[in-house]
Design a protein that fits this description.
The protein is mainly alpha-helical and about 100 residues long. It is about 45% helix and about 5% strand. A two-stranded antiparallel sheet has the order 1-2.
């Protein structure tokens, strides 16, 4: 059985801000054991919901935001840009789900 967590096994080639890899790992843990849904729309809805649960921010937010637990030092440490997740990460995961 393919799970949503398995979509997070291989990381994308490029991150936007330093908080992204931390959220990626948390997403993988969040979806551990959750079966892959039957439609891309359902997958998107689940990822958007997890984004809000894990960050406390909606993925529709326009501005970058800081998440303390992702702060490991450095210029953009702890920062996330929802637009990157909407426009790059989610399409990447949806494409991967259909392989």
């Amino acid at each position: 059985m393919k799970t949503i967590a398995s979509l997070f096994d291989e990381q994308p080639m490029q991150w936007n801000l330093r908080g992204d890899p931390h959220l990626w790992r948390e997403m993988r843990e969040h979806f551990d054991g959750v079966p892959l849904p039957s439609s891309p729309d359902e997958l998107v809805a689940l990822i958007e919901s997890a984004f809000r649960i894990l960050t406390g921010h909606p993925i529709s937010e326009a501005e970058p935001f800081f998440t303390e637990r992702y702060n490991t030092g450095g210029m953009s440490s702890g920062m996330l840009l929802p637009k990157f997740w909407r426009e790059k990460i989610i399409p990447f995961l949806v494409e991967r789900s259909q392989i």
